[in-house]
TrEMBL record:
<dbReference type="InterPro" id="IPR011055">
    <property type="entry name" value="Dup_hybrid_motif"/>
</dbReference>
<protein>
    <recommendedName>
        <fullName>Peptidase M23 domain-containing protein</fullName>
    </recommendedName>
</protein>
<dbReference type="InterPro" id="IPR023346">
    <property type="entry name" value="Lysozyme-like_dom_sf"/>
</dbReference>
<dbReference type="InterPro" id="IPR050570">
    <property type="entry name" value="Cell_wall_metabolism_enzyme"/>
</dbReference>
<dbReference type="GO" id="GO:0004222">
    <property type="term" value="F:metalloendopeptidase activity"/>
</dbReference>
Length: 745
């Protein structure tokens, strides 16, 4: 019987992600060498086989791209390899066998490794693209997790070195890298064919049978990192057949000349837990432009600069609110159409002359009757309307129509107080009434503290573009008008009156609003918008435990483990259960009761829970109406479950952990759905803060209140639609990353 040969693998056990590492096999007592053996050796290369196996979610599987032949081979490990539980390289030679465990290390520096051009089915194209197709640029990176890359589609107009000095830039997009790559979709608009042919050489009617396109990708802000693909051919629809026939070719992806283990073979559908979301369209989160405003409301030559200032502040504060994790809800095409229809109605089409009520355009008698209805009629019956309208400024008129006792005071004093004129309409929303100025100040302090000003004491600030925008946002958010907007997709009289009543209870201007909304549907391409998730209706009886609730993407140690915040058995890497949902929250975030309840228990735990509030649900009917019988555990493969011994018809409790403050109420108090019952924190054992990279609110739904363990508890996501990682906007991802970079103590 032939003796088995003892063999040994030589090579690093800690390869750097994205770097090709050589591995060789040697016989016992054979001198070490890491170069391929020459032909004629007693080791036949074809009889030496290498394999790579990985353990993922508790199961072992073979990696196709890991099978190699020869004495010396090279492997390149991708970003995803760091998330596998175990990786082994196995070699077989002459009956001998050796195994080593591999632990890939993060890339030393971020880089783009290669770009693939795929068809709309995410497959390598088998024929040339045509106009009307989608091209998907898949950009592979290392050291770039959740960082942005800038990707551009170009039409090649002769700059063979692709320095982009004369080529046509078609479209540029920014995308965040997830699990080592990012997919960017580009539409080959047939209109671009005309533009490409317009650059044909003199005497030619077109640029030939094919137009050449290519893609570049670079790390945001680092042009030196740019990589480019080879040209891919797109059939020219205007090509006229000539005697010389050009054979079509396909531009295939550029790759580094390496054996790219786990980079080429792995289809994202097989391992990528962040499934592509189709909830947003490309226009939903686009910045507002001056062109949008002019298309919607017409052009005011004398007010171009003032309107540009307004546009600037709209975009600036929308972005800032998202970075703070308290986003302004102006992030869908439909919401934009409704928002601008309302502020257009209030300001005569964003006309800066109407930024302060009556300063530039006074009320006529006719307008007064239209806008103020019975209030104007009372003045007319008293023989005062003509006189009041002839005043300049119209102080008496506004003090009367907005005075206390007339039904539209909004917190003003009586006619003699002068509040009606002092707190007259200003800004994009035409913020009116002392109470609304006060409310707007509170919202500014909460969402934009660095821009806070007491508007009640300084009402004239609202006419400035900055505060004209901020107060419009404050009103939009305070009265949750965006929720009404989500359900009104058609321009019917009833729909417009419904949302208009949230702005003006007397429905003044609803017909103008209808016209503006119909124009907004066109300008913001609402009918071309991809589906958006309709807001879970709160019907005035319930709300989320915190504003903009999202599950934590990172573990307490700062690792990308979005399943850690879900409800499940052994969901913490098969080591520990988790009894609720972890909702990312900067310490000090307000915590709400959710539904009408009774305070069951307030205490400081001797366990990790820290400062805790337990509520017993009183409005059972509303709470039961929230249950989603169709909810499917997103992380079932990690251990997420629906419930453990939970009875939806039993007593219902809501439990809130890790609070920094939990003494807003006393045990036995009844609380309404929108009462603040605490502030988030990072409290743990005996109320002492623990150290974490994901400050959060731990939230539970149960029959058992503060009892430990899973028994008698339900996955909160069955009742509440919290955002998961594939539903986050780029700004929300930025927010998660910003909190993760700090060690909270």
């Amino acid at each position: 019987m032939e003796k088995e040969i003892n063999i040994k693998i030589i090579g690093t056990l800690t390869p750097e992600v994205g770097v090709a590492e050589k591995y060789t096999v040697k016989k016992e007592n054979e001198p070490f060498e890491i170069e391929p053996i020459t032909l004629g050796s007693d080791w036949n290369d074809s009889e030496i086989e290498w394999f790579v196996h990985v353990r993922d979610a508790g199961k072992w599987r073979f990696i196709n791209d890991g099978k190699k032949i020869g004495k010396t081979v090279d492997f390149t490990f991708s970003e995803i390899s760091q998330d596998w539980e175990e990786i082994v390289i196995i070699v077989h030679a002459y009956g001998g066998k050796d195994i080593i465990n591999i632990s890939p290390q993060p890339a030393a520096k971020p880089k783009i490794t290669f770009i693939e051009l795929l068809d709309e089915n995410k497959k390598t194209p088998k024929k040339s693209f045509t106009y009307g197709n989608w091209i998907i640029a898949r950009v592979h990176c290392v050291g770039m997790e959740l960082r942005p890359i800038v990707v551009t589609l170009w039409e090649n107009d002769g700059d063979k070195y692709k320095l982009n000095t004369k080529n046509l830039k078609v479209n540029t997009q920014k995308k965040f890298v997830k699990r080592g790559f990012a997919d960017i979709k580009f539409y080959l608009d047939p209109m671009h064919a005309n533009l490409a042919n317009s650059k044909a050489d003199k005497g030619e009617s077109d640029e030939g049978k094919f137009h050449e396109y290519y893609v570049t990708a670079e790390i945001a802000g680092k042009e030196e990192s740019r990589r480019a693909t080879l040209d891919t051919h797109v059939a020219n629809p205007d090509y006229v057949e000539k005697k010389l026939v050009v054979s079509p070719t396909i531009g295939f992806p550029v790759r580094e000349v390496i054996n790219s283990l786990m980079m080429v073979d792995m289809s994202p559908q097989s391992w990528w837990p962040f499934k592509e979301t189709h909830g947003k369209c490309k226009n939903c989160e686009k910045d507002i432009t001056l062109n949008d405003i002019e298309n919607a409301f017409g052009t005011y030559i004398n007010h171009k600069i003032a309107r540009q200032e307004i546009v600037k502040y709209i975009n600036e504060f929308v972005k800032l609110s998202k970075e703070k994790g308290k986003p302004i809800h102006l992030d869908t095409c439909l919401r934009k159409a409704h928002f601008f229809a309302q502020i257009g109605t209030e300001t005569l089409g964003i006309n800066p002359d109407w930024m302060v009520e009556t300063d530039a355009k006074r009320y006529s008698v006719v307008n007064c009757k239209t806008v103020f209805g019975d209030r104007a009629k009372h003045l007319e019956n008293a023989g005062l309307l003509d006189d009041y309208c002839s005043d300049n400024p119209q102080k008496r008129l506004l003090n009367y129509v907005y005075g206390k006792g007339n039904g539209f005071d909004n917190g003003n004093g009586n006619e003699a107080s002068g509040d009606g004129y002092k707190f007259r309409g200003r800004g994009l929303k035409q913020l009116t009434g002392r109470g609304n100025y006060k409310d707007a100040s509170k919202i500014l302090k909460d969402v934009f503290p660095e821009h806070y000003i007491d508007l009640e004491a300084n009402p004239d600030k609202v006419k400035e573009p900055k505060y004209a925008v901020l107060t419009a946002f404050a009103f939009w958010e305070k009265h949750e008008i965006w929720k009404v907007a989500d359900s009104l997709k058609e321009s019917t009289d009833d729909n417009i009156k419904k949302i208009r009543s949230k702005i003006n209870p007397g429905l003044a201007g609803w017909r103008e609003c209808k016209k503006y909304f119909e124009k907004g549907l066109e300008v913001f391409k609402v009918n071309k918008c991809q589906p958006v998730d309709v807001t879970q209706e709160d019907n005035g009886k319930w709300r989320f435990p915190i504003d903009n609730p999202m599950l934590c993407m990172y573990s307490q140690g700062g690792l990308l483990k979005p399943w850690h915040g879900s409800f499940g058995k052994n969901i913490r890497d098969e080591l520990a259960n988790h009894t609720g949902n972890d909702l990312l929250a900067e310490p000090g975030t307000k915590v709400y009761a959710c539904v009408r309840s009774k305070v069951e228990k307030i205490y400081t735990s001797s366990s990790l829970a820290g400062k805790v509030v337990v509520l017993k649900v009183l409005d059972v009917e509303t709470f039961k109406s929230l249950r989603n019988e169709n909810y499917l555990p997103k992380y079932k493969n990690k251990g997420e479950i629906l419930e453990k011994g939970f009875d939806p018809d039993g007593d219902l409790y809501l439990t809130f952990w890790h609070l920094s403050k939990n003494n807003f109420f006393n045990v036995g108090d009844e609380v309404e759905y929108d009462d603040i019952i605490g502030l988030t924190g990072i409290s743990g054992w005996n109320g002492i803060n623990f150290s974490t990279r994901n400050p959060h609110l731990h939230f539970e739904v149960s029959n058992v209140g503060s009892a430990p363990g899973l028994e008698g508890k339900c996955n909160p996501s069955v009742y509440f639609k919290f955002k998961t990682e594939d539903e986050l906007s780029q700004n929300e991802i930025d927010f998660q990353n910003r909190l993760k970079e700090k060690e909270w103590k």
